[in-house]
Amino acid sequence: GINAEYGFTNQKSGMACCWSIKNPEYPERVFKVASGVTALDFSKQNPNLLAVGMYNGTIAVYNVRSNAQTAILDSNETPSNHLGPVWEIKWIEREYHARER
Long-range contact list for 60-69, CB < 8 A, 24+ apart? Predict the structure, then answer.
């Protein structure tokens, strides 16, 4: 959600939290991110992968099964990263086949 005190003009850091049905009182995973989270999507093919879109244009992918707090992929590491807010994020699932020789 958006903090009404700051709105979109003064973005601060954010977080993405994952809860378990075993303990709905406290998040099992907390991923701290540089900007406000605006979109989330779990991969259907690899349900342990969570894509997080942020207000500053960053897209990061986290492995929710890992105890690591760092993203396994981060669009800030690419030279042509997206600069506008990420309002929607969706995995494109592809089927990969080994090439026959």
Answer: 60/31, 60/33, 62/16, 62/29, 62/31, 64/18, 64/29, 69/30, 69/31, 69/32
